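Predict structure. Chain length: 136.
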Amino acid sequence: MELILWLVLPGLVALGAAYLVWLLMRARIEVLTATFHAAVAKVQNDCTDRRPAVDDLLADLRFERQRFLRRMPGPKGFETSVITQERIYFRNIPLTGWMEEELPLGEGELLAPEVCTLPMMPTLTVQPTAVALSPR
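Prediction complete.
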C-alpha cells in the first residue's frame, strides 16, 4: 500500500501543480485582454474626437481639372492630343503647380463623344522666315 502511495502521490501533486499553473495563466491572460480592450476603446474614443477635424481639413482640399483638345500640324497632317491639367488647392491657395498630361490621339481616328465636347486649345503656327546673316 505504501508503495502505491509513493507512486501515485507524485502524479497527483504534478496534476495539482499543473492545474494551478493553468488557473494562474488563464487569469493573467484575462487581465491582459481586459487592458488591451481598454486601450483599444481609448484609442477609438480619441479617433472619434479627432475625426471631425480631419473631415474639415479634407473638405477644404479641392482638386481642379481642365481638359483641352490640341491640334498641332505635323509631318503627316494634324496630330490631335488631349491635354489634361490638374491642380490641388487648400481653400483658395494652390498647393501644387499645374500638372499636365498629354494623351496623343493619333491621326484620323474617331474621337469619343466626351472628347468632342472639349474646348480647342489655341496653337501658334510658326511660319519659317528667311534670315539674312551679315558679317560684322
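Summary: DSSP finds two helices and four strands in the chain.
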